[in-house]
Design brief:
The structure holds 2 protein chains of 2 kinds. Chain A is built from 21 helices and 16 strands. In chain A, strand 8, helix 7 and strand 9 form a beta-alpha-beta unit. The mean pLDDT of chain A is 83. Chain A is of the alpha/beta class. Chain A folds into 3 domains: 123 residues, Sec1/Munc18 (SM) protein, domain 1 (Rossmann fold), CATH 3.40.50; 182 residues, Rossmann fold; 114 residues, Sec1/Munc18 (SM) protein, domain 3a (Syntaxin Binding Protein 1, Chain A, domain 2, Alpha-Beta Complex). In chain B, 91% of the residues lie in helices and 1% in strands. The longest helix of chain B has 119 residues. About 17% of the residues of chain B have low confidence. The chains are: A alpha/beta, B mainly alpha. Chains A and B meet through helix 1, helix 5 and strand 5 of A and strand 1 and helix 1 of B. Strand 5 of chain A pairs antiparallel with strand 1 of chain B, so a sheet runs across the interface.
Chain lengths: 559, 318
């Protein structure tokens, strides 16, 4: 149940099967898949001397073998047919990321006049690896032209992605989905249909408990993507955006300089892997230690190189040292940029406000705080997030205040049009659209219980009070009481013999956040025998979520 | 981590496309042959049944022609030879059909006997096909009999008519003969008289004698002709009679076959009665169960009512 390991072993197999000098031929979508789990160095180690894109014009290199790693869409197959009709390489080994239909296979066969194709295989790697327990399908917009409907392309992509994820993890699951979401139902139906169709592929060794595929809808928890994140990975994604494991820092100090670009890949960067789930405060301490570690090494180096042995040692250790220093400077740059942003935008205060909106019951003080924030020079996205949060929380209790805030929002945004995302959010994920209570209930007993507990323990960290709803669902499942009312089974299952599943694959339709990924990896690390993998159509941050809302505001508004 | 190797499938595809492009023209004929072969695989039963059906059809057409001929009531344009030929042909084909159906039934029985693995429905279907063929054959032969009867009626009628005519003609012939004799005598007398009367009388008597002679010959010829005609009629009636007796034989065979069918019909009857009995039993059981359930429910309601009552009393008391 490790997506990264699965992807790595796929590639290992590919490079074992095709020996000698080779070209890797990719399409636009598999580029990001490959780059999410392989580095250039690893490719070179496997005698890959060229990496080409199917869509581009290429030269004839007749002495190289070609490993084509392609998503089997109609467009790509057409391009591939043209390629094979005029082969540019010695021989072709086709690896498809998903199940290829018989007719497409025949089309390729028809254009294979020179018998250039030596092997055709399906390696089910139709997803991008983000963390070892987090996969994404790179499909940021899933909503169709109406509420709770799919965009056709997105449905196909997510469906294929989930199927390939199941196949690569060798799971033949029972499916559960959010009962109030037609999108989840449709996806669940398609997946179970595919499983029925491809029974031979899904014929794995049966475990005593069937793995669980849990399909959730983002609309049942719209709060999590709106909140500001305080763990390293999530913060970087929130403030700068991680694209295919790369971060581009906007150069604030000097506009003439090229923007800096860093690779943030947990599988190649041990320090990042250790710290990506730490919060901002702990991160500072970790980086300080890291820097001092580098310092100790460098001081040792500089001090005494007297004998030839010392020189030899120094030269041997120098690449490591170089690598380390590069890594340190990268993380220091990131951290300094992060803290700049935090100070500049007053994020600590706003983060506290957001958390209090999500978790506490202090309507009046929050209301005045938001009003103050709207008047200030906070970035537009943050203003939108604040108003969205307030609207979600108090849409039924204080509709007047929500109206006031909306008006204030329109007055204080550089682009007043984007204020329309608040009503869209309420209609898509408002109280009547959700099926569970995600905010702490205002019931007197629960209040008393909570305050009592809080009084005893105190709040650990005001910035990370909020717990995503996913955690509630997952802990319920782990405690052996699945909520079959809100997440029913897609097929009839003998409910009497259902035990605690050992493998859970969570698919969130509409995007998952790093906060949820953190929950999943924490639960995985807890070592209670259950392995969880999170998959989603996109890795969300505040910006993307708000943009998605604005986009659906346009499409649904146009209907 | 699972994967699927589809190289073999792909290579099959490639070779298939190669083969297709190489032999586009040649591919049609073996297909046809295949189809023919598949057709040949149809059971003997079907083939025979088809043949029998078509033969019955042609026999029916012949019968129609025969009936058209037989119903004509002309005296002279009667074409006995043609009718006889037709009758003969139909008779032949009917008897051969009868034999064919008997052999078909044999085949069906054999299949049913040694082909236990075959579905019972196929047997049933074959049986019903045989029965329907028998029915149509019976219809055809019934028609044939009717037509033959009509024909014999017609022939009798026409014979009686011709007898009337022939009787009168023979009477005139007799009278002619008598008059001829008489005339002969008279002629003889007249001859002597003519001898007496001179040359004119001689001439006359000679003339008369000549005419009488030719007339007599004519009459004799006519009698001969009538005789041959009635002979012919007789033979045709005989042939019709024999045909009818043969038909009787066919009918008795058919009757035997039908009586064999009766057994199975009776079995079906018995089964149906069994079914009715079973359904009745099932209904009785269900009624019993229903009665039990209703009584249970009533008991439950009563207990529940008592509980409520106690509860109310308890509420009132406290």
């Amino acid at each position: 149940m490790d997506v990264n390991a699965a992807a790595k072993s796929y590639f290992k197999r590919i490079f074992q099967e095709v020996s000698g000098l080779k070209v890797v031929l990719l399409d636009k979508e598999t580029i990001s898949i490959v780059s999410s789990c392989l580095t250039q160095t690893e490719l070179l180690e496997n005698q890959v001397y060229l990496t080409e894109v199917l869509e581009n014009q290429r030269e004839n290199v007749r002495h190289l073998k070609c490993v084509a790693f392609i998503r089997p869409t109609k467009l790509h197959i057409r391009l591939l047919c043209e390629e094979i009709r005029n082969p540019k390489y010695a021989e072709y080994h086709l690896y498809f990321t998903n199940i290829v239909s018989r007719s497409l296979l025949e089309r390729i066969a028809e254009s294979d006049d020179f018998e250039a194709v030596k092997s055709v295989q399906e390696y089910f790697l139709d997803y991008e690896v983000v963390n070892s327990d987090f996969a994404s399908f790179a499909m940021p917009h899933v909503l169709g032209t109406a509420k709770d409907t799919w965009d056709e392309n997105a449905l196909e992509r997510v469906h294929q992605g989930v199927v390939s994820l199941l196949l690569s993890l060798k799971k033949n699951p029972v499916i559960r989905y959010d009962a109030n979401s037609d999108m989840c139902l449709k996806l669940a139906g398609q997946i179970s249909y595919t499983i029925q169709q491809e029974l031979q592929l899904f014929n794995f060794r049966k475990s005593d408990v069937d793995p669980l595929l849990l399909i959730l809808d983002r609309k049942n928890d719209p709060v999590t993507p709106l909140l500001m994140q305080w763990t390293y990975q999530a913060m970087v994604h929130d403030l700068f955006g991680i694209q295919n494991g790369r971060v581009t820092l906007p150069n604030t100090s000097d506009a003439s300089q090229e923007p800096q670009e860093f690779v943030l890949n947990p599988f190649q960067d041990n320090f990042y892997q250790e710290t990506m789930l730490n919060n901002f405060g702990d991160l500072g301490i970790k980086i300080k230690n890291y820097v001092s570690q580098l310092q100790s090494k460098s001081s040792k180096k500089a001090s005494d190189i007297e004998t030839i042995d010392d020189m030899k040692q120094f030269l041997e250790a120098y690449p490591d040292y170089k690598k380390l220093s590069g890594n340190v400077s990268k993380h220091v740059a990131l951290l300094s940029e992060l803290s700049n942003r935090v100070q500049h935008d007053n994020l600590l205060e706003l983060g506290e406000l957001e958390q209090s909106l999500a978790c506490n019951d202090s309507q009046s003080s929050d209301f005045t705080a938001i009003q103050a924030a709207l008047m200030s020079t906070v970035p537009d996205t943050l203003k939108l997030c604040l108003v969205c949060l307030y609207a979600l929380r108090y849409e039924k209790d204080f509709p007047g205040n929500v109206k006031t805030l909306q008006a204030l929002l329109v007055a204080n945004l550089s682009n007043p049009m984007s204020a329309s995302c608040v009503p869209v959010l309420l209609s898509l994920c408002g109280k009547q659209a959700r099926q569970d209570e995600i905010f702490p209930s205002s019931n007197i007993f629960s209040k008393a219980a909570r305050s009592g507990l809080h009084g005893l323990r105190g709040v650990e960290n005001v910035y990370t009070q909020h717990v995503p709803f996913l955690k509630v669902i997952l802990t319920d499942i782990l405690n052996g009481k699945p909520r079959t009312a809100t997440q029913p089974y897609a097929s009839t299952v003998n409910t009497a013999i259902i035990k605690k599943p050992q493998d859970i694959i969570v698919v969130i339709v509409g995007g998952a956040t790093f906060e949820e990924a953190k929950i999943v990896s924490e639960l995985n690390a807890a070592q209670n025998g259950t392995r969880i993998v999170l998959a989603s159509n996109a890795v969300l941050n505040c910006n993307m979520f708000v943009n998605d809302l604005l986009r659906s505001a346009q499409t649904i508004g146009n209907e | 981590m699972s994967f699927q190797d589809r190289t073999a499938e792909f290579q099959a595809c490639v070779s298939a496309t190669k083969y297709r492009s190489r032999t586009v023209g040649r591919i049609a004929t073996p297909n046809d042959n295949n189809a023919a072969a598949i057709k040949h695989q149809k059971s003997d039963f079907t083939r025979i049944a088809q043949k029998i059906a078509s033969e019955i059809n042609t026999t029916g057409q012949k019968l129609q022609r025969l009936s058209r001929l037989a119903k004509r009531k002309t005296l002279f344009d009667d074409r006995p030879i043609e009718i006889q030929e037709l009758t003969y042909l139909i008779k032949q084909s009917l008897s051969s059909l009868n034999a064919d159906i008997a052999s078909l039934q044999q085949i069906v029985r054999q299949n049913a006997k040694d082909g236990r693995n075959q579905a019972a429905q196929i047997d049933q279907h074959n049986e019903s096909v045989v029965v329907s063929l028998q029915n149509s054959l019976a219809d055809t032969s019934m028609n044939f009999r009717d037509i033959l009867e009509v024909r014999s009626q017609n022939m009798k009628a026409s014979q009686s008519r011709t007898e009337k005519f022939v009787a009168s003609s023979s009477v005139t012939a007799n009278s002619d003969a008598n008059t001829g004799n008489f005339m002969n005598a008279y002629n003889a007398n007249g001859a002597s008289a003519a001898m007496n009367n001179g040359s004119h009388g001689d001439y006359l008597s000679l003339n008369i004698g000549d005419s009488a002679n030719t007339r007599y010959e004519q009459v004799a010829l006519l009698e001969n002709q009538v005789d041959a005609y009635s002979q012919q009629r007789l033979s045709s009636i005989e042939s019709i009679e024999s045909t009818i007796t043969e038909l009787g034989g066919i009918f008795s065979q058919l009757a035997q076959m039908v009586s064999e069918q009766r057994e199975s019909v009776q079995r079906i009857d018995a089964n149906t009665e069994d079914i009715v009995g079973n359904i009745g039993g099932a209904q009785r059981e269900i009624m019993k169960f229903y009665a039990r359930v209703t009584s249970n429910r009533r008991l439950m309601l009563k207990i529940f009512g008592i509980c409520i009552l106690f509860f109310l009393i308890w509420v009132l008391v406290t």
